[in-house]
């Protein structure tokens, strides 16, 4: 079994870069909103756990429902 590492790196590195930018953007938005709402636990969880943007998106969606009511 022969691996072509150049072919693997050709798609792997851009994928990591895109996922990192995606995570950073959502993490900044989520942490900013949680800080503004004085939700310390959410802020700490978003700072500690790397969830590729899933945790901040969940927080934003949950808070959007709470604001609309």
Label this structure with key terms.
69 residues, mainly alpha, 3 helices
Would you mind describing this structure in some detail?
- This protein has 69 residues and is mainly α.
- It has one domain.
- 81% of the residues lie in helices and 0% in strands.
- It is built from three helices and no strands.
- The longest helix has 32 residues.
- The protein is elongated.
- The N and C termini lie far apart (58 Å).
- The model has no long low-confidence stretch (mean pLDDT 87).
Total number of helices: 3
Write down the overall geometry. Answer: elongated
Mean pLDDT: 87
Output the radius of gyration: 17 Å
Order of helices and strands: HHH
- Approximate strand percentage: under 5%
Structural class: mainly alpha
Helix content, binned percent: over 70%
Number of strands: 0
Spans of at least 5 consecutive residues whose pLDDT stays below 50 are none
What count of domains describes the coordinates? Answer: 1
State the end-to-end distance: 58 Å
In a nutshell, what does this entry contain?
This protein is mainly alpha-helical. It has helices at 5-36, 40-48, 54-68.
Helices and strands in order, then pairings?
Blueprint: H1 5-36, H2 40-48, H3 54-68
Helix pairs in contact: 1-2, 1-3
């Amino acid at each position: 079994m022969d691996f072509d590492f150049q072919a693997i790196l050709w798609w792997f590195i851009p994928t990591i870069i895109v996922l990192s930018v995606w995570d950073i953007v959502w993490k900044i938005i989520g942490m900013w909103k949680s800080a503004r709402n004085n939700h310390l636990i959410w802020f700490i969880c978003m700072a500690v756990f790397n969830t590729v943007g899933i945790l901040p998106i969940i927080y934003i969606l949950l808070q959007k429902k709470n604001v609309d009511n």
